[in-house]
Amino acid sequence: MIAKLSALVLCLALPVHAETLRIAIPSDPAYVDPAYFGSTSEFYLIDNLYPRLAKYAPGDAWKWELDAAKSVDLSDPQNIKFELKPGLIWSGGFGELTAEDVKYSYERHLNPDLGSGIIAEFKLLDNVEVTGKYTGIIHLKAPSASFWTATMVFTTGAIISKAAAEAAGGYFEAVPTATIGPYKMKSFEPGMKIVLDRDQGWTGTPGAFDEIELIPIADDNGATIAFEAGELDFTTLNALDFDMLSTNPPKGGVVKLAQSVDPFWLGITETAPALQDIRVRQAIQLAVDVPAILSAKSNGKAVQATGLAAPGTLGARTTPPMARDLERAKALIAEAGAEGTTVRLDFVSTASDGSNATAQIIQANLAEIGLVVELNGQDEGTFWSIDSIRGTDPQLHLKSWFGNPDALYIMQYFTREQIKSWNWEALQNDEYEALVDQARTTIDEGARSNIYQRMQEIMEASGDFLFISHEAYTVLSRDTMEAAYLPDGRPVFAVFRLK
Amino acid sequence: MSGTIGLRMLLRDPMGLFGLVLATLLILSAVFAPLLASHDPAAIDVAAKLQPPSAAHWLGTDEIGRDTWSRVLYGGRVALAVALSATVLSVFFGGLLGLIAALGPRWLDHLLVLSFDTVRSYPVIILALAIGPIFGGGIVVLLGLLVATSIPYYARVMRSSVIAQASADYVEALRAMGMGRIRIALRHILPNVIGPILILASMDIPAFIMAEAGISFLGVGVKAPATSWGMILDQGFRYIGHTPWLVIAGGLPLILATLGFTFLGEALRDAFDPRLKRRG
Amino acid sequence: MLTFILRRIALGFLVLTLATALLYILVQLAPGDPASAMLGPRASPKIKAEFREKLGLDRPMPVQIVNYLIAVGQGDLGTDLKTKRPVVETIAAHAPHTIALVGAALLLAAGLGIPLGAAAAVRRNGWFDRALGVASVSLISIPPVVIAIYGMLFFSAHLGWLPAIGAGEGFWDNLRHLLLPAFAVGIGWVGYIARLVRASMIEVLGANYIRNARSFGLPSRMVTYRYALRAAIAPTIAVLGVGVGYMLGTAAFAEIVFARPGIGKMMYDAVTLRNYPLTLGAVLCATALMVAATTVADILNAALDPRFKDGRE
After folding, report:
1. Is the pLDDT of residue A11 over 50?
2. 0.90 exceeded by the pTM?
3. Do the domain assignments include residue A384?
4. SS3 C312
């Protein structure tokens, strides 16, 4: 009680209003480590706190620019030469960023003991050769175009401090000890907020804010209310809110629509006992009313997907999307003798982003063909940390992954090796696996595009995937600042400016 | 206590009459929900989602275009079914345990009273939040929770009324005539105490309705595709920025139902047994 | 009196112990692996193994119960699976918000309920008394979750007078954030207390010592408010003691609607996280609070009741 009172007195005594940027995150981070990230807040933090050789720049189109690297030589698609900028100092007293850190950061994913979640992305990596304090060469096992675009410039290319990681026991939990950039982690109060403050060791362009607060608000509704109440400056919401917010924007709010490359699909696990029969899986693909989902979830702002590659990106399919056919679905179920089967649908149940609506539509659609769907809504963090039930028994799962303009980033995960990790669908297809290898080492864009399209055909034909859409988001930001975000709405803290 | 006088008093009390009318309407609307509903409560029409009230949808639609009026009607069925079965079950088991405590040996009485106190010490909503998900939620778990936490209340009332009656003169007389304890209890005491207990029970119906809605609002009660007023409130809360109609549609019947049954219960009590006090 | 107090406290502890044991048994009845039931699917194998070890899950039920009681008795409610900190710490961090809310609701209920009840007793059977009677019953029967949502809809979203979410920072801001939730939690009890105060005031106004006071020539208004009110407050306190337990439940709704980081909101979030140690820990803490409130109320009631005789149940 006394502690509480004195804290209260302290609060009253503190000077208010340093420049603070307040950003909503859907849930607390668990691991701010490039080897284990998965949830939105982990993406935000890894994107913004760790350096990469080059990273995607904020704006409407996916374009990369140099970050920690002074120069990169991509002329040899098997051996990428880089030179780091000198004078980039890790926070926490871990010294300067060197080529050794780059070597450590990338090669660690190959260490099976680490259990890295992004091991597939680094499949092609042979080693990183350190040729000087700031220089090195990334040697691949085969020439690749996608390694740079899908892996290096994306979140997966994050570089961590070797010294800090080793001191922390090999990986970082929610509070990373060494970062580089205008902001560093100051404090983390689970469920309350994460505070970043200025990194005094940063010599580049300073950030515009003294502090950045990341506030966990699980639902769009709460985030909108908080924004209206002036308690939040930036949030990405579901596209469902766009029409409402743009016709009647909250006071001081700027409302924009962001079309992401994040695929949203229904995964249908082929090893689940209830779903082993391909006819049942195909019936599910045919029974779900995707246009209804798009309307309920995004007010029609997102279009029906034909695959994982977003429209306009390499390998996007041009075939018409799957059409609903209840009669055929019913016939397939009858043939398989599967009437009355119960299946569980796992989904991320944040309060108002349409996920519950989507799940209920699927439940109703599948009831029409005689399947009983048990809804299992979870928070984002639990959903992605594969829990004991899903780890042993995945069935139906609605999910959206952070997309990458290079769709191979996602498609390379649906291999046998990934079955207990990311390949929840348990797709097992020899041709597909051969195509993954081929895609990684194909340089020619036209040829790659054909490979990607073939891979998506296989996915759909397996009955394991029902492609729904690529997510559209509403970006809500305060008019006193210039918000900076990637084409999919992910904020780039360092580039936010005050007007 | 005379039934006809009580009934006449009830009808003369304006609030009681109001309660009676509301409760009757509610019960009728639940029973005849399939006839009154304008739509299949589960029918999805996303093109018509989140609409305000109109001729086609009297109370508007929810986020996947289901008709709110029809869902409210079917939600009333769930509310009443849960409230009535919770009342019946807890009165029955509570009454039985209370009777056993009052008539049984002293040690059993102490044991039972202690266990009543123990179960009564849980805050129901908080307990539901913890236990509901562990047992998987759903109507059965919800009902079990409501009944289990209400049994002690009726058991205590039954126990003390039976004990109070047991020392009454007529019981002494019956005993002197050589009648057995159990027989006296069942034939003579029970009919005298059951009336007040039933009135108390009628006053608990709104509490059960409220509890069902509250627990379903929290997402640990009634599960989709079934519907409940609490779930409609929850949906409305999620989509409050889009339309206020869902919270209004989920909240109003809830208020009317609890108001109706409360007024009715109060009036019943005043009419039939003015000595009874409402529980704290 | 002292023996009564000691006995009552001992009974409180006994009930709390039994309630804890019963909760343990209940959770063990849940389908599936008992460690998973208590810890949720998110627990790492390490946490599960430690838990099995601590409670001796391979040993007979009575041993497990005793182990559990010992652990709880030592303040060990397990590990919060989200923050990896002891559950007690997480609960302690959230509890002040709930306690402030329940406290404010109690203040509101008593602050409005007592004068309203007293006024109604003085103007017995007048229009005010009748209106209050209807209003009391109505207020009691409106679900707090509806009051919370409608309150937010009207005062925050429509009028923009009061903040919609959070607990605020700094004293005045805290207070502003407290208003609507406290209203939602407390308003039902205004009617309740008003009714009780009215009833006991009417009883007291008719009692001998008031009549005596009047015959000694004290001015009537002073008699009414000083003597009668003092006598009327006693049952109110007792009711408030019981009310705390119910308010803990209703506070959960207000906290969820207003995103106020109290125990109820914490539990609600923990449910989607399947963070069971936290939810079970919260039940135990809330139960303890409820038992404490009932015990204190019973003792206060006995102390204030002139008819109290030692040794009665």
Report:
1. no
2. no
3. yes
4. coil
